[in-house]
Write the structure tokens for this entry.
Amino acid sequence: MSDLNAAVEDPSNADDEVAADLNQYVTFKVGSDVFAAPMAPVQEIIRVPVTMRVPLAPSHLLGLANLRGHVLPIVSLRQIFGLPDIEGDELTRAVVIDLGTPMGFVVDSVTSVISIEPDQLEPSESLSGAGRSDLISGVIKNAGEDMVMLVDFARLMERAFAELHHSVGTAGSLTSQHADHTALDDEDDGLADETQLVSFVVESQEYAIAISSVQEIVQAPDRVIQVPDAPRALVGIMTLRNRLLPLVSLRQLFDLPQRDLSSADRIVVVNLNSVSVGLVMDRVSEVLRVPNQCVEEMPPIMARDGQGDITAICRLGDGKRLVSVIAPDRLLSESIIDSINETHESALEEAQTVAEIDNRDGSNADESQVVVFRLGAAEFGVPIESVQEIVRVPEALTRVPKSPEFVEGVINLRGTVLAVIDQRRRFGLDSIDRNDRQRIMVYLLNGTRTGFIVDSVAEVMKIPHAAIEDSPRLSADQSRLIRRVANLQASKRLVMMIEPDQLLEAEEIDALQDIAA
């Protein structure tokens, strides 16, 4: 990969470097077989990034990833080749190839980069009859004991994504962003024996949270909106970049002496049970890299004694400095979580009114206001004006005889029959048990009010139009339903923007009208 970088850095040598690349191939393993790809379209080789699954996309699409601010589809070669899935390990890599649209192809391991002469290539006719022969353009001879098959990625992409050639180049060009993946891998490996923490102080006691759990750290606001009848620890709500952020006081949670919120306090934003929450603390100290041998698990007796939110103790400075490591997902009680959810819902109506006013005076011409909901770890957004209301899922849904299979049941919503559809089933995702975090989002589809069950409603937010780009075109159904993706680089989030009027087919809406009648 360094040869490729050299051509970019020294234009005078670019032609020579490109010519060399035409004879260079990267080899990799998928299952027990060895394959190769020309170096020229290979942009980089990376560890498999965190991916967000795309509903209604082909099964071999593992999801979308954010690669340095660009949307990158991640594809499983195992699935395309009909091999069983395995759990990735330290050797698993994604080979990023750009043939008009950059895509990352997950392989079991990358073995080497080789240079070959034209006479070392032979056609793939010898593989006729093999299950993957139509994806193989040739075989490399004298490449060691293993037969190395040359993958035709252009044909593979055309077969795997029949509509991909219509796609707008959403992932952008990465040719100017080549990275030394070996150096990155070495850096990651160097952190394997360390724990990275953000340390902070509450009432002279030092605590810490794993840096992977921290979204950002901001100053306490001048004004906090109070929440009526809220649990004591929920001190209020602040606005953070046009989204509502519930604030939870660690002093209250830890039964420490209380004091008024001041500009000296800091808000550490974490994700708790799929909801962004701001933890109020006296001050943030530093970012720590602690050797794992200095981290001790919390004694079980302490966990039983009401300290279950503290999972470990760091002994620093020869044991003279003790830092308690907090598990954010254990901090909040169910009552606080319920109160946070209700706060989001009550804010929806107010936010919708604000959106209508903004639309009249044109003040939001450069941004879209959306309701963000979650299905598993994936986030989706719908225009706020499309959402009629958001209600809790009742304990039981009434099943209507002979109703369509896609209808989960009906509820009585203030005297009106509302058909309810499980959004997970609609998207082909695994079902989950009913829980208190689930909500029904109500839309008006061609004059018919319809409810869709989602895992949770996260927030109402304004997204700048500059952050919204066309979604990769991965299947016919997906391209109609999810045409755009909001790439929120600052918070490292991808929000798939749903077109509500594409949630149901015309005949399905007719069936719902019959149920309502």
The two ends are 64 Å apart (CA to CA). The chain is about 20% helix and 40% strand.
